[in-house]
């Protein structure tokens, strides 16, 4: 698992590109500079790992393009020690970004193939989330709630009510909403019953699937 000066240089270039695209959160940019994205991809894609592109990771899923990862992470406004619930662990790259930003990450993945692979990879890279769970992301992780923020890394037709219920007052929920094309949506919980909604343009994600069998 090599991480060379060349890789580090490519990460610096990627961070500079993201700055040009209005990623301003220094913690996000620092995480992008630190994390060896090429190690989260099939070796076939290694030479392309620091382009701003999405790639397949198996089980019909993709690793989001770095801009999308950075944009969602920036919307969360992560502070050191924040409890963050991630729906859709995938290959673990977004998990690694949040962890590097100082979050206590609780992550759920419904694809067993990816869950097993990521559970092995992250510790090898020195990244230890508080909890990696195999299960239905629609249900969140009520045992560990409430969370300072929640990030959903797949396109959802609706905002799952259990996720809204697991968000702290003042907390932020970032979710791509829509069927074929998603609108990046931020919910800020203002009270037990009130949420403030903000929308941030179109993105494309694989669908968030609900499994009735969990």
- By DSSP, the count of extended strands is 9
Report mean pLDDT, rounded to a whole number.
92
> How does the major sheet shape up?
7 strands, mixed
Sketch the topology as an H/E string, one letter per element: HHEEHEHEHEEHEEE
Instruction: Decide which structural class fits the backbone.
Output: alpha/beta
Principal-axes shape call: globular
Beta-strand content bin = 25-35%
Q: N-to-C terminal Cα separation, in Å?
A: 34 Å
The CATH superfamily label reads Vaccinia Virus protein VP39
The figure for the number of domains is: 1
- CATH level 3 topology: Rossmann fold
- Numbering strands along the chain, what is their spatial order in the largest sheet? 5-4-3-6-7-8-9
Task: List low-confidence stretches.
Answer: none
How many alpha or pi helices? Answer: 6
CATH architecture: 3-Layer(aba) Sandwich
Radius of gyration: 16 Å
Percent in helix: 25-40%
In CATH, what is the class? Alpha Beta
Describe the structure.
29% of the residues lie in helices and 26% in strands. By secondary structure, it is an alpha/beta fold. It has a single domain, classed as Vaccinia Virus protein VP39 (Rossmann fold, 3-Layer(aba) Sandwich), CATH 3.40.50.150. A seven-stranded mixed sheet has the order 5-4-3-6-7-8-9. Strands 1-2 form a two-stranded antiparallel ribbon. α1 packs antiparallel against α2 (26-34) and α2 packs across α4. The longest helix has 16 residues, at 5-20. The protein starts with a helix and ends in an 11-residue tail after the last strand. The model has no long low-confidence stretch (mean pLDDT 92).
């Amino acid at each position: 698992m090599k991480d060379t000066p060349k890789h580090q240089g490519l990460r610096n270039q990627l961070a500079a590109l993201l700055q040009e695209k209005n990623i301003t959160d220094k913690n996000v940019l620092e995480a992008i500079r630190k994390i060896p994205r090429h190690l989260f991809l099939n070796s076939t894609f290694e030479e392309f790992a620091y382009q701003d592109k999405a790639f397949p990771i198996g089980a019909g899923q993709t690793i989001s393009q770095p801009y999308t990862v950075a944009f969602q992470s920036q919307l969360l406004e992560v502070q050191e020690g924040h409890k963050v619930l991630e729906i859709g662990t995938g290959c673990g790259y977004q998990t690694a970004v949040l962890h590097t930003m100082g979050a206590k990450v609780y992550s759920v993945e419904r694809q067993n193939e990816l869950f097993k692979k990521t559970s092995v990879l992250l510790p090898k890279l020195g990244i230890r989330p508080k909890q990696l769970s195999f299960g239905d992301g629609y249900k969140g992780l009520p045992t560990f709630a409430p969370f300072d923020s929640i990030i959903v890394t797949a396109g959802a037709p609706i905002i799952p009510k259990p996720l809204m219920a697991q968000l702290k007052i003042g907390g932020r929920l970032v979710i791509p909403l829509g069927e074929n094309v998603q609108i990046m949506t931020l919910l800020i919980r203002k009270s037990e019953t009130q949420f403030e909604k903000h929308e941030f343009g179109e993105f494309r994600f694989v669908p968030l699937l609900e499994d009735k069998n969990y």
